[in-house]
Amino acid sequence: MAMLNEAGRQFYLAQAGIRLWYARAPLPGAAPSPDFDFSEPEPEAVSPQASVEPAASLRSGNVDRANRLARIQGLMSGEPQPSSGQGVAAEPEAKPGPIQKVPSSKAELPDEITNEAVALAVESEVADARQVLHAHWGFWIGDRVMLVSALNDEASFQLQESLAKNILRALNQPDVKGFRIQWPVFNNTLVPGNDRSGFCRVVADECRGYAGRETVLLGLAPELSGDDRDSLLKVIPGKPFVDFGSSLAALSTDPAGKRELWAQLRDFRGRVR
């Protein structure tokens, strides 16, 4: 195989979308570049006998090309192809005949079956979405009381933590330590351990040793109800005596909600002295 000169190499690389560059100065440690040959190849000498073709040869070459093109088009359209020796001839005009219905390659389903399939697919997607647990909970633990609240990512965490500590101080819990858990850990819910049972295991591990405390729950899992919510909240150890519907962020802008919560906490204030 003959080596390409530099002009030919640049042409083929440009057709492939590869841009070339040349260093203006020798690069440190680089091998010396070969002398680039930018000369154009000399045209081959053509004999007069080869350059003059008979008209019959040209016509036969055109017919061969037309035959090949017709065979390719026939293969693509599924129609019978003419043999190589027939050439491209005009097809005889088809005689009108009875109209026959060509069966469709795509199965046609009745509307009720199609609608039912769509409804089942939508229900399946909704069910999968409900199985994914999204939770961001804050835990504040005192000597006798543990407060657990849903956290709002759009509100200041310092504001929510300050309100949680003030509530525990009102319940005679001055020494408070806390942590928070955000779920799911990974955006891909198919990652092992990223499901609801994994969340319950993490909460149980983090809350180990706090089983004897009274618990105050604020705005946890409002999207769940009934046994589904009860089974999720059972992972929190302790003895729940207040299960309030508003979170810390909601209480910070709701004076009426604060009074309602305090009315519930006041009945149990003496129990945690």
Automatic annotation (TrEMBL):
Residues 31-60, 76-108 are annotated as: Disordered. It comes from the Bacteria. This is Uncharacterized protein. It comes from Marinobacter zhejiangensis.
